[in-house]
Every structure is written in structure tokens, then in C-alpha cells.
Amino acid sequence: MATTASLPVTEPGTDHPAQPGALLRFSPPALLLLGLVLAAATSSLVGMDGGDWVAAGVLATAALALQLWWDRTARSRPGPSGVGAAYYGLRSVLAFGLAWLNPFLAFYAAVGCFDVERLVPRRWIPVGLLATAATVAGAQIGGLPPGDTAGRVFYGMLVAANLGIFLTVQRDAGKAEDRSRQRVAAIRELEHANLALERAMVENAALHDQLLLQAREAGIADERRRLAAEIHDTVAQDLTGVIAQLQVVTETREQDAARVHVERALRLARHSLGEARRAIANLAPVALAEDDLPEALGKTVVRWSERTGVKAEFTLTGVTEPLHDEVEGTLLRIAAEALSNTARHAAATRVGVTLSYIGDQVVLDVRDDGRGFDLSALPDRGTASGFGLAGMRARAERLAGELTVESEPGLGTAVSARVPSVPYER
């Protein structure tokens, strides 16, 4: 009688087999009942007499009593143990005795292939499987004991073959169990990594907010310094000149000379008023109050071109997205400062302004075909004064960005500001 074996897989993530389910719990009595039914149907074929049936009844009753005892004991002794090994051994002895009386009763022994890992400590598993293999092999040769030498040899070969099959299946089940534990461990590590990543993202968001706050505060301080410098360099000097010219007027009695000084004072006053208006206009990017960054840049370029008479073009590339107010304000101020520098120093005939959305960065390029300059002649960053290139670079670096300048005498100038595309916050 051929019998197949399938060894259990232990509970993932533990070193002990999972608690037996209803199938393994009721398999021993169910297989015993199946064997008794088949034995009754074949008793005349195998020659069972009344004494054999009395012995089979005693062994079957003992097997049922053993099973009832184990059902109560197993609740307090999960996993392989000495008590489980004793239960397995007694059951194997009863199964061997039943198979001796009728080979079909070996069905009761087959359950040992399924629950050996749940009952027997690992080092004793081969012994338990050997007991099961001996009983199953007896059924496969048609009953015990073997009739002659050839039968005994064949019986030994079947025992060895069955034991080899059982051990191979048990080894494969162990490998599957190890893979299952490794998968569970990997999933747990991934969960820990995800939790750590979530915590890191929360910390990064907090740091991001802190950096933006610091950038805003630094921007306010920078605007104050810029306004102080511009007022000192323009308005204050012009007002000093106005006072000087008016003092000359009060001290001279010549009408023509007084008129000349008054006209100079008026020019200085008008210039001072223009500089004051320009400083106020640059204090905050009013253009962003109603327009987004691309529209504000486009209008800024158009107004600059109309005011200076220099041909200027604005180009937009990439997919636009709302950016944080600090990012948009910084880029607009850098563009205005670059255009202002071009008007004052470049003597250009054409200017191109490009805004590019590239992944997680935004790039602003301002190019002109003016006279250019020697980059090596610029003062060191630490000693640079004013709010030209140094100011634009400082604005970009406050947002963790960078500003690069390319220029050569006679070949124009290109200013490129690259900053992170921090999204708009409602």
C-alpha cells in the first residue's frame, strides 16, 4: 500500500510549528476509522480471525484513549517536546501493531508523516520517521512479518526508500520554513525602514519650514541692508548735493549763477525722487500680487525693454507649478537685478530671459550680447560691496540654490540662478 507524506510548515517568524488545526487534530482518529473499515472489508482476504479482531479492538481503543489524552495535553505544550515525542512513539507502536494485524490499518501510521515536526524535537525526527517508514513499508509488502528472506530484503529496501522520501520532504519543508522566516524578517525590516523614513520625512518637513523661516528673516535683514546702502548711495548723496546747491544759491546774489544752481538742485531732487521710487518698488515683488511667476517675469521683461529700448525676450520651458512665495520673490528680484545690471553696464542690443522648470529645481537664465567683463577682475565675495552679483548670489544661496556667471570681454554675459522648486504652501 503506497502512502504519500507532506510535512508541515512552521509558523512564519517563529522557531516553533504553528498550533495544529482541525485537520491534524482529527487526522489520527479519522485514519484509524478508515483503516478499521478497510480491515473489516478485507478481513477474509488477509485471514483475520476472532483473536485478531480482539487485539485490533484493544489497540484501536488504546489509540483513541491516547488521542483524547493528547488533545488535552497539547493545549499546554505547544511545539516539539519530550511529551510530544512520547505521544508520537506510543502512537507509532500502536500503528505498527495494527498494521501487523491488517496492512490496511497502516493508514493510522501515515499521520506520522504530517505532524512529526510538531511533536518531536528536531534531532529525533529521523527516528520518528523511521518508525513510520517501517509501518508503511509493512503495508506495502502486503502485511507483516515478511514471509521469507527475499521478502525481508524487499521490506528493508522499502523501509529505506520510504525513510529517504520522508527525510527529503522534511528537508524541503525546513527550507520552505527558513525562506518563510526570512521573508517575514525582511518584511519587518522593511516596516522598520518605512517607519524610519516617515520619521525622517517629518523631521525634514520641520527643517524645511525652519529653513524657510530663516530665509525669510535673512531676506528681511538683507532688504534692510540693501535699502540702507541704496539710500546712502543715491538718495542721501543726492540730497546732500541739493543742500550744497541751495547753500550756494543763498550765498550768491547773481541771478544767472543762482539759476544754474537751482536747476542743478532740481535735477538732483528729481533723480533722488526716482531712486526713492525705485527702491520702494524693489522692496517687495508687487508684480506677484496678481500674477504668477512666469507672467510676472514676462511683464517685467516687457516693461524693462520699453524703458531701455533694448530688445528683450522671455521664454518659459517645462511644466509650471505654483512655488513658495520666497522662491518666486527671490527669482523675480534676481531677474530685476540682472536686468538692471545689464541696463547700467552691458550696452547690450539683445537680452534673453528664460525660466525653466526642471524636476525638483527651477532655473532662471538672463543672457545679453553686451560688452561683457573679465570674471577674474571681480572682487572677492568676502570683500564685495553693493547689491549686484554678490546680492543675487546671496539671494539664491539663502534658498539652498546657486548662482553662476559666465562672461568674457566683448562676448556678453550670462547669469544663471538655480533654486529648489519648493511647492506653494496654502
Task: Write the topology of this structure.
Elements lengths: L21 H25 L3 H24 L8 H20 L5 H4 L1 H8 L5 H16 L8 H103 L3 H29 L9 H16 L2 E7 L7 H22 L3 E9 L2 E8 L20 H10 L3 E6 L5 E8 L6
Parallel strand pairs: 1-2
Antiparallel strand pairs: 2-3, 3-5, 4-5
Helix pairs in contact: 1-2, 2-3, 3-5, 3-6, 5-6, 6-7, 7-8, 9-10, 10-11
| Assembly level | single chain
By DSSP, the count of extended strands is 5
> What is the percentage of strand-forming residues?
5-15%
> Helices and strands, in N-to-C order?
HHHHHHHHHEHEEHEE
Write out the strand line-up for the largest beta sheet, numbering strands in chain order. Answer: 1-2-3-5-4
Helix content: 55-70%
Gross morphology = rod-shaped
Ranges where pLDDT stays below 50 over 5 or more residues in a row are 1-19, 382-386
Q: What structural category arises from helix and sheet content? A: alpha+beta
Radius of gyration: 47 Å
Structure overview:
- With 426 residues, this protein is of the alpha+beta class.
- The protein is built from 11 helices and 5 strands, in the order αααααααααβαββαββ.
- A 5-stranded mixed beta sheet has the order 1-2-3-5-4, covered by helices on one side.
- Helix 10 packs antiparallel against helix 11.
- The two termini are 77 Å apart.
